[in-house]
Write a structure and sequence with these properties.
There is one protein chain. By secondary structure, this protein is an alpha+beta fold. The protein has a single domain, classed as Lipocalin (Beta Barrel). The chain contains 5 helices and 10 strands. A 10-stranded antiparallel β-sheet has the order 4-3-2-1-10-9-8-7-6-5. Helix 3 runs antiparallel to helix 4. It is globular, with a radius of gyration of 18 Å. The C terminus is likely disordered.
Amino acid sequence: MRRQYQPTLRNLLTIAAMSAVVGTTSCFAGTDASDLQAATPDDEVATAAAVPVVELTAPPVAEEAPIKAFIGTYKHTGGMPEQRALWGKIESMANSFNFFARGIVKDKLAASNQIAKEIRIEADSETLVIYFDKGNQTAPLDGSSVKFKAVNGENMDMSFKVERGKIEQTFVGNAKGRVNTYELQGDKLVLHVSIKAAQLPKELAYDLTYERVPAATEAAPTAAK
């Protein structure tokens, strides 16, 4: 018989707060994988309009800077296969808990791992900004950490480490953390996600695939006005 993870009340409360580990993925809490549906165009317009814009005031990025190659917009191309794969991993994780904790774990992990339909990366010589469907994450390019307020109000330390062909974004909280690694593969951007927490029996890890949107396509709506 498989041994199930037996959480204490304190662990359950911490798991309930795990939505603080900011997600960039896409399954939906309380649904089965077969019920997952893509957002409508109206949903996308409403979401995009709500995203705040960060003003970059430092000099532009140097052509030879490693971050230069990342600047642009990327659309998720992994579709339902990546959504279902992620949902399967979340269900597997939740099923390692006992009956009383299973639903909490599944819903909270799903809520904190929503696949962004679009990622936009912007930077100047000092600051890196990564935009998602519902907001942005901003920190210095020199690797300094900043306080990032999660949806439940908890403060986490967030930082970027930029190398040629790779951005490593790290979130560190109380006994939990997340690393988003953005890897360029030609015109593709592969996002490797790793989530660890003292209250989880194992790491939750998955990959998401994005494709660069041509600059002419990004500029088209503006040109049409």
